[in-house]
Amino acid sequence: MTIRVMLVDDQALLRTGFRMVLSAQPDMEVAAEASDGAEALAILRETPVDVVLMDVRMPNVDGVEATRRICEDGEGGPGSPKVLILTTFDLDEYAFSALKAGAGGFMLKDVPPGDLLEAIRAVHSGDAVVAPSTTRRLIDRFSSVLPATTSEPVAKELERLTDREREVLTLIAQGMSNGEIAARLVLSEATVKTHVGRILAKLGLRDRVQAVVLAYETGLVRAGSA
């Protein structure tokens, strides 16, 4: 299957660079480009796209608002695409707002090409991808609004997990990627991915972001422990 990608960035030179990287992949094609959120929404109504690489700071309609319209309001057309935020600014409010708006991931523009390609594939498959440094700081920043004690119904949810799955969930909450978890636990990445899938299924979670929040809500991980 070819992943149809849309590039949304107000800098044409950056779009050119990303297009070169993506076009060299056998499983990807750049289906469309836009210079701001408003243009992106208009194009999406006419062009089928699987994943949108969305900048944040743009004129007219910014990336966060465009993401909200795509994910919440369905303005991306039938079968709205997944959105991967790609920005120069590693600022927590952008990441939090984008994820809350429905983005499947948040990465920085200086991410290595290989990591970017894997992030696109992961978001396309339904996983969530957040830059590890951003995950850690988001949790530290917003931990004050999480419950201080564990509620019985939520604690019982964790009883569904095996010891290994709890261990993997703990590392997810610390902002580790599948590759980093595999190295820490001396497992293959395929095995880690299987564990992650089972964790999400058992706990009824949509993605890794929800898994991180649950880990802190239940007290499995504490802020500052990452």
TrEMBL record:
Residue intervals of the HTH luxR-type domain = 154-219
Q: Which UniProt keywords apply?
A: DNA-binding, Phosphoprotein, Transcription, Transcription regulation
Q: Sorted alphabetically, which Pfam families does this protein's record hold?
A: GerE, Response_reg
Report the Gene3D superfamilies cross-referenced here: 3.40.50.2300
* Domain spans labelled Response regulatory: 4-124
Using the record's annotations, give every residue carrying the modification 4-aspartylphosphate. 55
> InterPro entries, alphabetically?
CheY-like_superfamily (IPR011006), NreC/VraR/RcsB-like_REC (IPR058245), Sig_transdc_resp-reg_C-effctor (IPR016032), Sig_transdc_resp-reg_receiver (IPR001789), Tscrpt_reg_LuxR_C (IPR000792), WalR-like (IPR039420)
Look up the domain of life of the source. Bacteria
Q: Which residues form a coiled coil?
A: none
User: Among its keywords, does the record have Nucleus?
Assistant: no
Q: PANTHER family in the record, alphabetically?
A: TRANSCRIPTIONAL REGULATORY PROTEIN NARL-RELATED, TWO-COMPONENT RESPONSE REGULATOR
Name the chain's protein.
Response regulator transcription factor
Q: Which organism is it from?
A: Streptomyces axinellae
